[in-house]
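Morning!

This is the sequence you dropped in the shared folder:
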Amino acid sequence: MSESTSVPQDAAAETPDEQATNLMVRRLSLVVFLEWLGAGAIIPLFPLYLKQHGASPSLIGLTMSAFFLAGLLTQFPAGRLADRIGRRPVLIGGLILYAASCLAFILPLSAWGFIALRFVQGGAAGAVEVASLALVSSNVPIEKRGRAISRIFSAQLAGTAVGPLLGAVAGVQHMALLFIATAIACTGAAIPVLTSSTIKAHDVAHIHHQPLVRLVMSRALLGAVFGALALGLGIGVYEACWTLLLHDRGGSSLAIALSWTAFSVPYVFFVRAAGWFADHWDRRMLAALGLLVSVSFCVAYPFVTSIPVLLTMGFLESVGFSFALPSLQAMMTEGRTPRELGRVQGVYATSQTGAIALASAVAGVLFGMHAFLPFVVSGGIGLLLTAALLIAWAPLDGHAHHATSAEPAT
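The structure's back. Tokens below.
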């Protein structure tokens, strides 16, 4: 979440409105960081916690997949709700629900209780993501939107990079403390949303008796959906098979942990630079190149036997991955009115979450057949989706010349 990333700066001084908008983005970045700091501390140890409480491998898999299933089912409705009643209520509700579900894990639960709480967590996390990105997209002009959105993603990845280290210090024997700490972090994250006059002022202006305008699947959104599917397939394969691949290559537990850090940490910093480039270069090419880098590495991983080389590749892939996200977000939100952007984010998030859920479910089966299959199949489909993205976006202008989309809400 450092603000010291070295990227070119705009010469013009900020106006009071721009200063207020930047303050909103900084506070939202803090909110996202705190949420994912707590979530990141829990996730690596959670399967072991379930096992200690008598869960079978199949139940553990079902419990973990409930998170993605919830996102798939709830992210678009959360976006629609954010368009209807505002982003702040959805943000606050998501954070409080996540905090409450974390606390509930310390109670004596049945198998279905674990699954239900994990489902609630997935829906809550999805709501926070959709609402925060919609709030940024509806208030930051298009020529600065890539940088603003990149700060949200940077905060998210910073939380997921630091969180597992805190979880490792606590250990599975102290998971109850981690649940409590996560609940405190999420509750604390809700405080800036509740108290910040800046965030409140930038929420959408509502006229409740007017119905929402029907959301149109534009070329810009369609291309972004193709990109979301490509990224989701890769993430799903890594979730299911990356640790297995490193283990087959003789990787130690430390090497496996370092591999996740090697991906997350560079992303935290490079995504800020990627946001600047998204505001100044052709976003179509940046998104496509980022996806192609990710797809290429995905195909290559199973044919590499050296652990140090795999760690280096993970670092380099993170750079490409980071350049895709701000450009995808900027392209799909340009020209949209504030009361559409919650649903736009919902479509994007639902597409990516659905791809993650499908890929993680199928990848394990393919890996059992042969280690290279899930990576090559995902990479091949990702290549086709990248081509589809370029076709969808071909008639569009990928440069951000003017703030043609939503103006800051009052």
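Headline: Residues 161 and 265 are 6 Å apart (CA to CA).

More detail when I'm at my desk.
O.
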